[in-house]
Amino acid sequence: MEKQPAIELKNITKVFGKVVANKDINLTANRGEILSILGENGSGKTTLMNMISGIYFPDEGQIFIDGEEAVITSPKDAFQYKIGMIHQHFKLVDVFTAAENIVLGLDEGKYNLKASTEKITAISSQYGFDLEPEKKIYTMSVSEKQTVEIIKVLYRGADILILDEPTAVLTPQETEKLFNVLRRMRDDGKCIIIITHKLHEVLSLSDRVAVLRKGEYVGTVETAKTNEAELTEMMVGKKISLNIDRSEPVNVEPRLVVEDMECIDRNGVKILDDISFTANAGEILGIAGIAGSGQRELLEAIAGLQQVQFGNITYNDPKTGEKEDLRNKTPLQIRELGVRLSFVPEDRLGMGLVGNMDIVDNMMLRSYRKGKTAFLERKEPKDLAQHIIEDLEVVTPGATTPVRRLSGGNVQKVLVGREIAASPTVLMAAYPVRGLDINSSYLIYNLLNEQKKKGVAVIFVGEDLDVLTELCDRILVIGSGRITGIVDGRTTTKEEIGLLMTKSKQQGDENNG
Amino acid sequence: MAKESAVKTAHEPLFHVVKRDDMSAGKAWLIRVATIVIAFILVGLLSVLVTGQEFGKTYEIMFSGVFGRLFEGHTTMLWKYLQEIAILLSLALALTPAFKMKFWNCGAEGQALMGGLASIICMIELGNKLPYPVLLVVIFLTSILAGAIWGVIPAVFKALFNTNETLFTLMMNYIATQIIAYYVYIKGGGSNVINPVAEGNLPTIAGNDYLVNVLVVTVITIVMYVYLKHSKQGYEISVVGESQNTARYIGINVKKVIIRTMIISGALCGITGMLLVAGTDHSININSVGGQGFTAILMSWLGQFNPFIMVVMTAIVVFLNLGVAKVADTALLNSSFSEIMVGVVILMLVGCEFFIHYSIKFKHKREVAE
Amino acid sequence: MIIQFICRAILLGVPLLYGSTGEIVTEKAGHLNLGIPGIMYVGAISGVVGSFLYENSCGNDIANMNPILAVLIPLACTLVGSMLMGLIYSFLTVTLHANQNVTGLALTTFGIGLGNFLGASLINITKSELPSIALTKTSSFFAAKLPFADSLGAVGKLLFSHDFLTYLAIIIALIVSFILKKTRVGLNLRSVGENPATADAAGINVTKYKYVATCIGSAIAGLGGLQYVMAYASGVWSNNAFGDRGWMAIALVIFALWNPSIAILGSFLFGALCNANNYIQGLGTETQELFKMLPYVVTIIVLIITSMRKKREHQPPQSLGLSYFREER
After folding, report:
1. What is the domain extent for residue C148?
2. I need a surface site. Which of A9, C1, C199, C263 has the fewest CB within 10 A?
3. Residue A221 exposed, middle or buried by CB count within 10 Å (0-12, 13-18, 19+)
4. Residue A354 and residue A419: Cα distance in Å, rounded?
5. What are the DSSP E strand ranges found in chain C?
6. CA of B229 vs chain A CAs: smallest distance (Å)
7. What are residue B367's phi and psi, to 5 degrees?
8. Is residue C328, in this structure, part of any structural domain at all?
């Protein structure tokens, strides 16, 4: 039987300032099917879905629901069309309970939390969710919060569900559980749209796949009739074998030694446990893991931004040959020890750079203390800015443009350029190519490789396993705050790393021993 | 026709608002200046409405209220004008480093009062006991200290526990007010005034009572500009204000910067208190600062935290205050009319920022892309 | 003596209670309205203007005055006046996304100027020798007590001897408390102040909630001004006599941890602290000035303790002071 189209998009275009986020998109999702929207970071998936759920309003084009034209100017309109979206960043009020969050904004007659709670319990037992309706959100784990979000949508009787990267924060078990729920809902005749960039999920879950690339619609294929290679090709345009250069490490020697490190977060929860590894000079050490497994904390602990409860961080100075203890030193103290540690953090505009300052002033972030007077010296940073703009081909009106006005790739060039300009002996980069186009990504890989050749100990936290296996000499895999394995980048496979990433703690211990 | 109806949605909204990031500084200032001009015309019209005076004549009176008979060589009014600008400006300057750090110091009133209190205590208690130059130095130092202490208390709690500074500094104002009230009652012998104290007054230069104040504030303006723009500490303030994460990342001790900056902010308020008490009134009461600590918040913000633009903004506001008061006086009305007008002008300036940071997109301009 | 002290404390506390209840409603929508002192001032003068006009239209003869109109006219004027102020504030901060602190402070400047100007104009009209204007006739209607209050002894005096605006203040505070905690509207409003993006995604009209909360909050605060003039000051208006009650109302919001029910007791406590000096033996006038700072000191202590304990339920609404723009990227 021919499936009924639930939602059709026609010629949708959305522009933010000068950036075309979506251009002329046509798309159909049917009832009783799971449609994946596949695309790289920044391909416009989320923007498109935000227009269906009423967060944004399209600049051009139309949306049809069940064949009728729909005007969705607000999330409220979206509800009326029974559209529910589960955002990547949860939209929950922290000080409210789960039940309060679920009924928020509803108009179902008399306000009766007790009755609502019963209904919530019914829904969660129906689908096998585990949820305490009276629990406050700020005491919940990430997967609990996601459960609240999903029940919120189900509670509203949505029959078109949009999920934005729902598995990014889940364990494999939780993911499988979620997929089962989604399949059950599909069989119920609901229309499920899932945004993702993970191919294996697309293949295992969806009926059809729609692919976006750089804000444009590429096409829709039936999952049964496609394969990873074809989807990748659609996603990235032409088939690109990564072909990242990897030179043989020379003059390898231990530069940074981490032993038995343990960190806890503000709530007293252990986020890093029993971390031991060595970063060698002249090598790229990759760090792989599911998002939020402790990668950020690991780098921040080394950089002096995260309190270390237990263990040692030792730096071997290549000049003096002395050992320096870096544990719980402030970033300033680390520099004063003569440790040339550069750090490209994950949050570029929130930590690595100041968005409202121009490129010159951002160059000064690392060097403003130079000189004995109380005043700033702007000449050197100005030259450096000019230098980076030319060498790394930063697209900007000038060195005095605030960096927040630059595109993501150019922002990253400015940041990486500055960190490398400090001629580091240790260079840590967290997700340095996230959101970057192919060309910028390669530029970053090359920069990292150059540093490696210069004898720098490079630590690279990545999410794309293809890149990790082609770029890194060794790959450290982290799972739930513990090291689950350290493998050779040349001999390992994506499957091996993938397996290590999802290992539980005990398994990790055995492997590590 | 058919094509067009295919791309048009049924009930599209007439317009929607979009954030913009790309307006040039020149165009932004054009909008602000235009707003000021419109605001001045509005003030004139409202004055005409209330006083029944002629439109043109209103501005003439306003001008005379500010500058007096300046063209005939009488500079008294001009100096009074400059003095008022100096006091308001020095408070606005004092607040600016804190604001740049996104520390909403609403306590200029109290910090200035405490500075003034330190001055008057020195004048009364030490007036006859110390040589004049030493006395001046003591007054200067104690005023700075008093203002700094009043400013640093909220900063310490902000740094340690992230205590809300807006509310904290507001409360500190009224504690200061009551301390002044207490002191005035004791020294004023049960009345709420202290007779002007002759000792420890700031020197008059060439017989001009206000010149010292104006000079001091001129120096502070220039120093503050250099401090914010070209000093390492000023740079640290900007980084902390923009992003505390970035500040930590490059090894800035955020707590230290918060505390240090509020010491500076409070100390400058203390100096203003000294200018008011030792330099102008030679006495103190609970209204010595007279709400200027609050107006200064507006001045610092409207001046985009740039000392030189703040000079212009304070000049405009003080002009309105004095000028419109004269207009009201002439018509035998209460001079509070000027406060209303200042409020109107500031609200308009606050509102005009919208047109700089946002743009309104009308829907019907869509192009048919085929 | 004790009874008198408590009654006085209540009388002093009621304007603060109105002010802080109004401010709580506004802050729950995420708007720190520092214009409250100006709004209360405008509320007071609007009521004064209304009753002045009505008294004059009755030929200044109490016999001609209809008690209901004498109360309703100033009441309506106050509500309209303070609501208009709230409307200006919400237009600037909600629609034009203006900085809340700056807008609020400018509104306070404007409101106090307006109050003083109108006050002075009225004084001018009456050609009074004193710098004040007395609306004692209207005040007598406002201050009307329950007839049996005095016959019930101490308890009666404590419970029944107040003017009706005092009871109204307590009723409003309780109603607001109830709405915030137990109703859908309250839940929605709190979500707007905590996390407007979430509220928006849940289909709540954030703009509408912010406007309505600010305007109603302003109207409630304005009543505090009216109560001050008509009940506390016995209908006598003089410029600047209202003092810093507006700021104290903002302090009370923190003291009450954003809960109007606690604000009821808090306002009486603040009233008592302002007034303690008159009832403590051997306290000089100078020490009275020091006593008056106690409400602020207490507020600061509460502010510090709550920030130290970091209990989530006692913190200010999370997006207080931030403007919300849906298409923010």
Report:
1. 2-314
2. C1
3. middle
4. 14
5. 133-134, 236-237
6. 9
7. -100, 145
8. no
Hey, which residues 10-29 in chain B have their CB within 8 Å of chain A? 10-13, 16, 20-22
Q: Do B251 and A335 touch (CB under 8 A)?
A: yes
Q: What is the pLDDT of residue A241?
A: 56
Rg of chain C over all Cα atoms, to the nearest angstrom: 20
Measured distance CA(C7)–CA(C268) in Å, rounded? 9
Q: CA nearest B89: which of B247, B323, B312?
A: B312
**Residue C329 resides in a domain:** no
Bridge-based pairing state of the strands A474-479 and A457-461: unpaired
Of B6, B16, B242, Cβ closest to residue A354? B242
Q: What is the DSSP string of C101-135?
A: HHHHHHHHHHHHHHHHHHHHHHHHHHT-SSSSEE-
**Low pLDDT (below 70) residues in chain A:** 1-2, 17-18, 40-42, 169, 171-172, 236-242, 267, 502-513
Cα distance between residue A19 and residue A13, in whole Å: 11
pTM of the model: 0.86
DSSP structural state of residue A33? E
Nearest CB partner across the interface for C318, out of A79, A91, A94 = A94
Q: Give A364's contacts in chain B (Cβ within 8 Å).
A: 235
- What whole-number distance in Å separates Cα of residue A84 and Cα of residue A53? 7
Name the residue in chain B with its Cα closest to that of C253. B167
Return all residues near C305 (Cβ < 8 A) that are at least 6 apart: none
CB-side exposure of A185: number of CA atoms within 13 Å?
29
Domains of chain A: 5-236 (3.40.50.300), 253-340+423-512 (3.40.50.300), 354-422 (no CATH)
Q: What is the pLDDT of residues C75-108, one digit of tens each?
A: 999 999 999 999 999 999 999 999 898 999 999 9
Reference A113, options A126, A129, A127, A102; nearest CA is A102
The minimal CB distance from B354 to the residues C98, C286, C300 is found for: C98
Which amino acid is present at C155? V
Is residue C227 included in any domain, yes or no? yes
For residue C255, give the nearest of C287, C290, C298, C315 by alpha carbon.
C298
Query: Is the dihedral angle over the CA atoms B195, B200, B205, B206 positive or is it negative?
Result: positive
Architecture of domain B13-365: Orthogonal Bundle (1.10)
Count chain A–chain C contacts defined by CB atoms under 8 A: 74
User: What contacts A56, CB < 8 A, 6 or more positions away?
Assistant: A14, A47, A50, C327
Beta strands in chain B (DSSP E): 15-19, 358-362
Shortest CA distance from B169: residue in chain C:
C300
The reply to whether residue C108 touches residue B294, judged by beta carbons under 8 angstroms, is yes
Residue closest to B151 by CA, chosen among B264, B256, B238: B264
| Complex ipTM | 0.88
The reply to whether B163 touches chain C by the CB within 8 Å rule is yes
Mutate to test the interface with B, among A18, A52, A60 (most CBs of B within 10 A): A60
Backbone angle region of A259, left / alpha / beta, with phi > 0 → left and psi within -120 to 50 → alpha: beta
Q: Which domain CATH number covers C218?
A: 1.10.3470
Residue type, A281: A
- Residues of B with CB below 8 A from C97's CB? 354, 357-358
Number of domains comprising chain C: 1
Q: What share of chain B is helix, strand, coil (3-state, %, to 5)?
A: 75, 5, 25
Residue C310 buriedness (CB in 10 A; 0-12 / 13-18 / 19+)? exposed
Of B10, B231, B366, the CB nearest to A60: B366
| Residue B305 pLDDT level (bands cut at 50, 70, 90) | very high
A53 shares contact with chain C (CB less than 8 Å)? yes
| Structural domain includes residue C304 | yes
pLDDT score at A89: 80
In angstroms, the Cα distances linking C31 to A222, B162, C87, C176 are: 50, 20, 13, 17
